[in-house]
Amino acid sequence: MADLDSALDAAAATVAAADALLIGAGAGFGVDSGLPDFRGDQGFWKAYPPLGRLGIHFEEMANPLWFERDPALAWGFYGHRLNLYRRTRPHEGFHILWRWGKAKPGGFRVFTSNVDGHFQAAGFRGNVVECHGSIHHLQCCGCCTPAIWNAGDLELDVDEETFRAAPPLPSCPQCGGLARPNVLMFGDWGWIPARTHEQEDDFRAWLAALGRRRLAVVECGAGSAVPTVRWQCEQAASLPGARLVRINPREPHGPAGTISLALGARDALSAMDARMSGSHGSRVSS
User: Fold this and answer.
1) What does R_g of the chain's alpha carbons equal in angstroms?
2) For residues 8 and 268, is the Cβ–Cβ distance under 8 A?
């Protein structure tokens, strides 16, 4: 389609001309790596059939109360995800973004709601804001300590039929009580945000230091259901000299001036990269 080709041309030109790069990433960004799509009950229950049989929705399961009511089920859900994220390799789009960012004189940052750690696995270090925390870090379920610690090589034995984790379950090294992921869940008043706050402080300082330098904001797979990433990218794109490229196959539109790409992240980034390198041949067709 001509409109899509024009949008890809504009997106590639925006990134190529920018002095700095902000990458926004939501849950849809991981789909190209083979991670399950939790969009809607059917997507969630396809990934976790036992929870579908119980009629438990994602918003209900991603709740800290399960660590009180049924720790084995809570750690079955999060332990399965931890194991899955470690087995899954980040797709090529991560590496394209890394290469773009490293070439920018003003540097780059990532703002993501994903807890999978795939940006770090793809080589990003010290420049990622994980606004919902990280499944690769743990905290105590009680209030004995504000500490956050690395999950290390923790691997849980999860029954694929019931999605319950076998003991021993992760424990706090200080009090010996039950541990949980350092992930912001729904209705979560016990999440310890210190690690994320440090990342956010660095992010705000970086944005402030940019001044009026040209900033490209490339947002991938961030939906409106949990709009944290979309809101942050729109805020950054409102700065002088900034422009937003929104990549989303279902919800690509944004404020005035947004370059909208109704594609999956990997396809859009690859097409933009080909234009920036001058290696693309045929145009995108319908």
Assistant:
1) 20
2) yes
The string of pLDDT tens digits covering residues 74-101 is 999 999 999 999 999 999 999 999 999 9
CA distances from 245 to 15, 28, 57, 204, 286 (A): 9, 15, 32, 20, 21
What is the reported pTM?
A: 0.94
Domain count, the chain: 1
Q: Give the pair of three-digit tokens for residue 199.
A: 């990342």
Closest C-alpha to 20, from 92, 81, 108, 149: 108
- Show the tokens assigned to 190: 């016990």
Residue 113 lies in a domain: yes
Instruction: For tokens 């330098």, name the residue.
Output: 213
What CATH number does residue 171 fall under?
Answer: 3.40.50.1220
pLDDT digits 0-9 by tens, 127-179: 999 999 999 999 999 877 779 999 999 999 999 888 899 999 999 999 999 99
Per the structure block, which two tokens stand in for 127?
A: 């420049």
Give the range of the structural domain holding residue 193, as residue numbers without chain letter.
2-277
Q: Which residues pair with 150 in a beta bridge?
A: 137
Q: Residue 25 in contact with residue 93, Cβ under 8 Å? A: no
132 is catalytic: yes
Options 80, 118, 132, 136, the catalytic residue:
132
282 domain-assigned: no
284 part of a folded domain: no
Q: Is residue 228 part of a domain?
A: yes
